[in-house]
What we know:
3-stranded antiparallel sheet
Amino acid sequence: MKWLFPIIVCVIFSCQDDIVEQNPYLNNLPPFEFEINLGLPLYDNLRFAGGTITLGQLGLKGVHLYNLDGSQILAWEASCPNQRPSDCSNTIVNGIEAVCNCDNSIYSLVTGQPLSEGVEYGLVNYGISRTGNLVIVNN
Length: 139
């Protein structure tokens, strides 16, 4: 048993916390929970792979919803993640990408990662839960 104590001590002190750098531009997003019924005609575009819709009433500048594969829906904040909120700091969906109005930086709606060089932060992801045609988006 004496040999076990040094091993436990080494394991405890060798573990490091992963440092996650929070986006300083989008750190106070308003809380929300929104329910979507995919059976309604308003949301038809989200029923199929590659379909998108933007809900302007959610989040800071809206929420982009993207149907990844026919069953999995992703939700992204529509604010430009590398800009302070302003009149031009929203993104517009262009296919499977979101483009920032301020600096034309491009982000993937599949991964949220920036596709433009020199861009530090990716899109902010929101939570999704789905049961059949009922989708709940929240943060």
